[in-house]
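Team,

Forwarding the record for the chain on the shared tracking sheet. I've put the sequence and predicted structure together so nobody has to dig through attachments.
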Amino acid sequence: MAERHLVLEGTQALEVIKALSSQQRLQILNLLSNQMLSVSEIAKELGQMLPTVAANVKKLVEAGLIHTHTQPGRHGSQKICSRLYDEITIKLPGMEVRPGKDSTEVSMPVGNYKEIEAEPTCGLASETGILGLLDDPRSFYDPQHVFAQLIWVGRGWVTYKFPNHLPHHTRLESLSLTMEISSEAPNYNEDWPSDITLWIEGVEIGTWRCPGDPGGRRGQLTPSWWLDRYSQFGYLKCWRVTHDGSYIDGVRLSDVTLADLNITVHKKVITVTLGNKPDAEFPRGFNLFGRKFGNYPQDLVLRLEYVPLPSPPATSPSTAVAGDAGQGGQGGQDGQGGQDGPAGPAGHDGRAGPALAPLGVRGVGVSPAPGPAGHGVNGHDPGPGAGWRAAGRRPGRGRRGGHGGER
């Protein structure tokens, strides 16, 4: 029989703790560990009064630890009890802290697949009834397939496309995919292995051998209209890919790493495929359970853990100075043409200065521009009034020649 594990935290655990605080209720759970019994049969086994046993069964049902259903008996209907879990983990209150890591999750309904290849036995079911025709692969292309809460395939594969919500300027640290899944047998068969393979972005992550297709007792969430003789629930499995390799439920599965998947913020979708390889030893299909079927109220959940990329080092303009800047001569003033002035003296040699704009010149630097020529004085040759003109100034003839600037 499949092992069932329940994880509780916070206030969810209160009802379960209260239910387990009774010795009589613990005895009932012990009796139901490997069999289903009616309330009267439990009372007989424990040597207790029927009303007492019925009250304790009611408490266990309210806590979600056992499931009951009625069936015809010798003297009318009788209530049949079955245990739902074999192991319970209770997390103490407190916040789980993972320094430096954040995550994003996408929950994908099992019926919202993009491609599928199905061989009988196969079909789809919503929480209210069968969708399409049983064992007819054409039903998987009916528009109502998006409402499926259970899909089963005797042999084949199914592909989903998850939106990539990896934030910009981050690096993927791990990818995990959680699902409730089983193999697919006619009706059900707990000894019915199926080799189920996972591919992400076309890369084979690994193969897990599912032990069977559980039944014999109803799934905790399985709708009442679903027949007892069919598959009831699956196994909660978590596939995980890291920088070190790939795992399923913490057990190493393969050497495939995140680098092999090449998932970056530039990918719009993440493609996930589940199914049987053509050369599988046990290609016995699968059941995928949604949040309204089986034992776990969840769909397919893709989780991305990431860390922010380190910020690039801050850059600043170079402040190294190769030499003192030569001071430019004063350019001609704007206005109408004036009288020519004397030539300025030749500038002294200077060393190259920093290519930075002088303050107050609109932050864009200046460019050399010739001013009007000046006439010589005392027999000196006229020299060009080479001055700096501020960028954006209109050219104009100066009233006097500029002073010769240093080079």
